[in-house]
Amino acid sequence: MSARKPLMAGNWKMFKTPAQTAEFFEKFLPLVSASTHADVLICPPFVDLAAAVSAAAGSNVAVGAQNCFWETKEGAFTGEVSAPMIKAAGCSAVIIGHSERRQFFGETDATVLKRTQAALASGLLPVVCVGERLEERESGKTEDVLRTQFTDGIAPLSADDFAKIVIAYEPVWAIGTGKVATPEMAADAHRCLRSLVEAKYGKDAAQAVRILYGGSVKPDNVKGLMAQVDIDGSLVGGASLDPVGFASIVNF
Ligand code: PEP
Predict the structure, then answer these.
(1) Are 236 and 214 contacting, i.e. CB atoms less than 8 angstroms apart?
(2) DSSP annotation of 239
(3) Facing residues of 141 across strands?
(4) Which residue among 36, 50, 216, 228 is least crowded, i.e. fewest CB within 10 A of its CB?
(5) CA 85 from centroid of its chain's CA atoms
(6) Going from the N-terminus, what domains does the chain have, and what CATH number goes with each?
(7) Helices (H), 130-240
(8) From the alpha carbon of 217, which atom of ligand 1 is closest?
(9) Phi/psi class of residue 187: alpha, beta or left (left: φ > 0; alpha: ψ in -120 to 50)?
(10) What pTM was computed for the model?
(11) What are the pLDDT digits (tens) for 60-114?
(12) Is 100 a catalytic residue?
């Protein structure tokens, strides 16, 4: 049994209004109030953060954002939200480099690194996403892709900074598709990431870092994934929108 406390995180993507956020928390909180085995995090859209923070106050559920800008000083950056603003709104975490950001919004390993550094400078826990696309897996390039994403997007962090991040392995072909990686496939990728961490930051850092799996996690497949020693939690999209379903994932 690993000493790493699991992190069960929900990524709501572009779903739910503030009123629907309040409704979710009303149903969800009682179902996870005794769930001390894991850290629980919900990442709603920006406009729902205030409702989520207020609903989650005093509970064991943390609230995070889905992205932050890399500039930490306020300024003329229309449409962007800074990490200090997210922190001031009562959040404790932020997802960085989700594959939908990489695919639709030009996110690169270089911008992932800058956003992660901004999140860390603002006292937020960055959940940094990596993962290969289908054609990359099919052509046997999964480990090369993970190595590049790690080397360019994460490894420039100092050891002190690295100790404060969470990595999420999300194979792009498994996100929102219903195609989940088998526990063994996920475990292989997690082992690969942990060995990259060990080569750069040493054994202790590799043993300490939490690596989440994301990609079509559901109540009926979470147990097999969480049984893998190198999987330290889940980043859950679609299935985190339902309070009862996500609570059963949290309580795997
Ligand atoms: C995600 O959005 O990070 C995700 C893994 O989505 P889904 O669970 O819907 O595949």
Answers:
(1) yes
(2) G
(3) none
(4) 36
(5) 19
(6) 7-250 (3.20.20.70)
(7) 134-138, 142-153, 159-162, 183-201, 203-208, 222-226
(8) 8
(9) alpha
(10) 0.97
(11) 999 999 999 999 999 999 999 999 999 999 999 999 999 999 999 999 999 999 9
(12) no
